Amino acid sequence: RATQYTCMLLSYLIKNKADKKKLVMKLKQLESSMSSGRKMFRLGNMVHALVAARKTAELPDVVPRFCLTASNLTRALYFVCDAVLWVRSVGLQPDIDKPKWSNWATKCYYYSVLCWDKHNGELNCVKCGGSRSFLLLLFQILKRNPPLLLDLVKNLCDLSGPLDTLGIYKTNPGVIGFCGVLSSLVGILTLASPHLKLKQ
After folding, report:
1. What number of other Cβ atoms are within 10 A of residue 16's Cβ?
2. d(Cα 29, Cα 66) in Å, to the nearest integer?
3. Phi/psi zone of residue 199: left (φ > 0), alpha (ψ -120 to 50 degrees), beta?
4. How confident is the model at residue 17 (pLDDT cuts 50, 70, 90)?
5. Choice between 8 and 136, residue whose per-residue pLDDT is larger
6. Per-residue pLDDT band at 126 (split at 50, 70, 90)
7. Among candidate residues 150, 157, 144, 146, the one with its CA nearest the CA of residue 188
8. Is the CB of residue 148 less than 8 Å from the CB of residue 133?
9. How would you class 190 by CB atoms within 10 Å of its CB: exposed for 0-12, middle for 13-18, buried for 19 or more?
10. CA 134, CA 53: separation in Å to the nearest integer?
11. Whole-angstrom Cα distance, residue 69 to residue 53?
12. CA 99 – CA 103 distance, rounded (Å)
């Protein structure tokens, strides 16, 4: 994932340089290959999302139960759509409507990240007076909880792609590539240091 988004960012940064056209083409090919390869391995993620949804459906508190279960189910649907797109990309079923399935995949991913962000904001559930008080409270909560800060950063970065694709907030491949690299690095950090991973 980090390689895919690094290629996207680099190809955007050098796309206007005349002597770099071949390199841009190679970077885009590598980005496409990384994307296709990741799609093939996502079936396991779909199973993981369904198992996680089953676990979160048993949580005692209503709000986390609803948000986390909805997030995991829409994530599983995203992986289903992604698998369909992979089947089309490798030529097993070329008549699949790519724009339709791509749009569904983007929407599912967007909602899965949005639900998770809602749960992450113990901030969102706290009523405080004025934006200054809110920002102070936000700073204090994130300072006390590095896993929450990293997860929030990762989710906000992950929103850049769906927001652009759905036309909610248009950016460019450079911004999406940068956000993807940052999100991937946070993911690698939480894998290398499990104590920084937000507990579900």
Report:
1. 9
2. 40
3. beta
4. confident
5. 8
6. very low
7. 150
8. no
9. middle
10. 31
11. 5
12. 6
Interhelix angle for 146-158 vs 130-144, to 10°?
A: 110
Compute the distance between CA of residue 10 and CA of residue 23 in angstroms, rounded to an integer. Answer: 10
Give me 65's structure tokens: 């139960």
Which run of H or E residues covers position 6? helix 2-13
Q: How far apart are CA 171 and CA 160, in angstroms?
A: 8
pTM for the model stands at 0.69
In order, the DSSP letters of 97-120 are -HHHHHHHHHHHHHHHHHHHHHHH
Mean pLDDT, residues 5-10: 94
Identify the DSSP state of 199: P
Per DSSP, 92 falls in state S
- What residue spans define the domains of the chain? 1-118+139-192
On whether the CB atoms of residues 1 and 187 are closer than 8 A, the answer is yes
Which residue type is seen at 58? E
The answer to whether 112 and 71 have CB atoms below 8 angstroms apart is yes
